[in-house]
Design brief:
- The structure holds two protein chains of two kinds.
- The longest helix of chain A is centred in the first third of the chain and has 14 residues.
- The radius of gyration of chain A is 21 Å and the shape is elongated.
- Chain A has two domains: 36 residues, no CATH class; 177 residues, Rossmann fold (3-Layer(aba) Sandwich).
- Chain A is built from seven helices and twelve strands.
- Chain A is α/β, with parallel strands linked by helices.
- In chain B, the strands form three sheets. A six-stranded parallel beta sheet of chain B has the order 1-10-7-4-2-3, with helices on both faces.
- Chain B is globular, with a radius of gyration of 25 Å.
- Classes of the chains: A alpha/beta, B alpha/beta.
- At the A-B interface, helix 1, helix 2, helix 6, helix 7 and strand 9 of A face helix 2, helix 3, helix 4, strand 1 and helix 8 of B.
- Chain A: InterPro entries: FTHF_cligase-like_sf (IPR024185), LUD_dom (IPR003741), NagB/RpiA_transferase-like (IPR037171).
Chain lengths: 225, 472
């Protein structure tokens, strides 16, 4: 007998459910098919401006920095200014996301924009988030050639663009948007929920920023999109 | 090979722990840090109690349909390109890992924090097979350098002080300048980051645990604050997920509810920094991520717990709140328990996984104050379950003769109320006059085991029953 049959057999014997096999299968199929929401914290259920404020407040609490940008076309200059203000070399790396690639990078000719996944030698990674959940200031990022996952973790600085219209109250709303986005109900290989820059409290329970991932997380909220 | 069973020496371990000055200094951080942080996070979320009830219901529902949710998970994970392996025992899981590593010719393996890996003794096994495991969570890295097991399920190096970490880094990182300044904890963190970065990039296989498996999508979920679990799974060519069977939950909505109580209960964070959903392997067109993903589903005694009075323990989501609030854990730390799982959750889980004969001391390591149950995010009745193990211990004659005889004498008296009252009256008459002055005894004949560590309160002059009678 295979390990699979052994383990499943032990589980089935252990459960010895009073329900019929059919009722059990129906209960599971229903739950998976309808994926009902449980209690969702009320804090995110506010108007759009208050939601953006909540998102910024929660992200700030966990040491992310948040900047609002009036228009996507301002992004190249905003990003260049971020690098300048921190004395970083004038280069960054990003994926193939059209929402980033189509920006007027020619406005900042001194900035070198590299493309593709990171090999660990980049100072700054630039990503476009799928969305943000205001309840905890959490960004949702999807893997793929548009936004390679290595950019989220290897560079010291992670700059993430998110559209104001993609900042929602809670995780459930983003899961539903993702179900629509993915269509065939298979998630991308990696979905990263990111809440602040990397940290560790493993030495005497003292919180220190910049463990293995980025030391800084900078979020740019684009308000015209 | 199996997990070491040092639990049999629990009493000796506890005495040593109480006398260990370094350990006692380190344990101060548990009580000060975790409790306040959790309370603050709970207070900030009005829905917290409602979420706890739902979290419990989600796990109960899943456990009672566990076979079906595991099959659903397996189907979705395969559809996304993962290979799913089933392992009945710890040895089966180790073999599954080894055969993958051998097939891809792995020399080094990076590891995210995984309690399943500790449970099955994976590191020692890989080393014997000449594969180098590298722990990448800072706490796990520290204890790997020290050759120690974790002393806490979410803060594995909580028993270690800063200066001890510095000494370990100087001992092991011999490629660095011996005169470097490591006084600031940040410099220790930076040194670990730089040292491990090269190892992440060079590893052949990455192994992580799973906080949850999602049946709806076939995803495994890990939560970390450092990002080490992510570098472990996206950089090597092969990603192996070690998960036990009770980690599965139905949907993304259900996992969201559990995540909302997990981080708040564990570290007092609203959400951990990195919550990562991994589904299958790298997709066509992806430029990074693992080319192969394997999920190993481990039983190792859990299907038996599903069938008996310990099923509720399988709700556990490994937040560590029970140990953070346990007066026994605060006094002696995790190593004294001598098992992979420590504190109240360990006292219930370890006997189920490693055998009561090896771990019978653990369900006795409790004052039954009930704080563990009161903070558990999935409402596991830990004291009740410890009591069940104590009953089994008595039934199986695992208690020492003196204790069994004492209980037998007490039971004889307790079943004969008149005799019992007579005996208590005699006892009170004998004891009360001696204890009257100080209200307590610092030593008593036949009770040295108690009075060696604390005073015995002196009894009242007359018994409760007599006092009650006198009132009416």
């Amino acid at each position: 007998m295979s390990q699979r049959e052994t383990v499943l057999g032990k589980i089935r014997r252990g459960l010895a459910s009073a329900k019929t096999a059919e009722a059990r299968r129906d209960a599971v199929a229903q739950r998976l098919g309808q994926h009902p929401a449980n209690t969702v914290p009320a804090r995110g259920h506010v108007g759009q401006q208050a939601r953006l404020d909540l998102f910024a407040k929660m992200a700030g609490k966990v040491s992310a920095t948040v900047e609002r940008v009036a228009s996507a076309s301002d992004l190249p200059e905003t990003v260049a200014e971020y690098l300048r203000a921190r004395n970083l070399p004038s280069d960054l790396r990003m994926g193939a996301d059209r929402r980033l690639a189509d920006l007027p990078w020619e406005k900042v000719p001194q900035l070198e924009v590299k493309h593709g996944p990171s090999d660990g030698r980049d100072h700054v990674g630039l990503s476009h988030a799928f969305g943000g959940a205001a309840e905890t200031g959490t960004l949702f990022l999807l893997s793929g050639p548009d936004n390679p996952t290595t950019l989220n973790f290897l560079p010291d600085h992670h700059v993430v663009v998110v559209r104001a219209s993609d900042i929602v109250g809670d995780y459930e709303t983003l899961w539903n948007r993702l179900r629509e986005h993915s269509g065939d109900d298979v998630l991308p290989r990696t979905v990263n929920l990111i809440t602040g820059p990397s940290r560790s409290a493993d030495i005497e329970q003292t919180l220190l920023l910049g463990a293995h991932g980025p030391r800084a997380l900078h979020i740019l909220i684009v308000e015209d999109a | 090979m199996s997990a070491p069973f040092l639990s049999q020496a629990f009493k000796e371990n506890a005495v040593d722990a109480l006398a260990n000055v370094e350990l006692q200094r380190a344990l101060g951080h548990v009580e000060r840090g975790f409790i306040q942080k959790r309370q603050k996070a709970v207070d900030a979320l009005p829905e917290f109690d409602a979420l706890r009830h739902e979290a419990r219901a989600i796990k109960d529902h899943t456990l009672s349909h566990l076979d079906l949710y595991l099959e659903a998970f397996e189907g979705k994970a395969r559809q996304a390109g993962a290979e799913v392996h089933w392992a009945e025992t710890a040895a089966d899981a180790r073999e599954a890992v080894l055969s993958i590593c051998r097939r891809v010719g792995a020399k080094t393996v990076t590891k995210g924090k995984s309690m399943i890996s500790e449970e099955i003794g994976l590191n020692a096994f890989l080393e014997k097979s000449e594969i180098k495991p590298i722990e990448t969570d800072l706490g796990e890295y520290i204890i790997q350098l020290r050759g120690e097991p974790p002393s806490h399920i979410i803060a594995p190096a909580v028993h270690v002080n800063r200066d001890q970490v510095e000494a370990d880094f100087r001992r092991v990182h011999t490629h660095l300048d011996p005169k470097r300044d490591l006084a600031d904890p940040v410099s220790l963190l930076s040194e670990a980051r730089a040292t491990l970065r090269d190892m992440f990039l060079a590893a052949d296989v990455g192994i992580t645990g799973a906080n949850f498996l999602v049946a709806e999508t076939g995803s495994s979920v890990i939560v970390t604050n450092e990002g080490n679990g992510d570098l472990t799974q996206i950089l090597p060519r092969v990603h192996i997920v070690l998960a036990s069977i009770e980690k599965v939950v139905p949907t993304l909505e259900d996992v969201s509810t559990l995540l909302r109580v997990l981080a708040r209960s564990a570290t007092g964070q609203e959400l951990s920094v990195y919550t990562t959903f991994s589904t299958g392997r790298r997709r066509p067109g992806d430029e990074d991520g693992p080319e192969e993903t394997h999920v190993i589903l481990l039983d190792n005694g859990r299907s038996e717990m599903l069938a008996n009075e310990f099923r509720e323990m399988l709700r556990c989501i490994r937040c560590g709140a029970c140990m953070n609030h346990c007066p026994i854990y605060h006094a002696i730390g995790g190593h004294a328990y001598g098992a992979t799982y420590v504190g109240p959750m360990g006292a219930v889980l370890a006997p189920g996984l490693f055998g009561l004969e090896n771990t019978a001391n653990l369900p006795n390591a409790s004052t039954f104050c009930g704080r563990c149950e009161s903070v558990c995010p999935v409402e596991i009745p830990l004291p009740k379950l410890m009591r069940h193990w104590r009953e089994r211990e008595y039934e199986r004659h695992l208690k020492p003769a003196a204790e069994r005889n004492g209980l037998r004498i007490w039971a004889f008296l307790a079943r004969r109320p008149k005799l019992y009252r007579l005996a208590t009256r005699i006892g009170l008459k004998a004891l009360h006059p001696f204890g009257r002055r100080r209200g307590r005894f610092s030593s008593l004949p036949l009770a040295g085991g108690w009075t060696g560590h604390r005073d015995m309160p002196a009894p009242a002059k007359t018994s409760f029953i007599d006092q009650w009678k006198a009132r009416s």
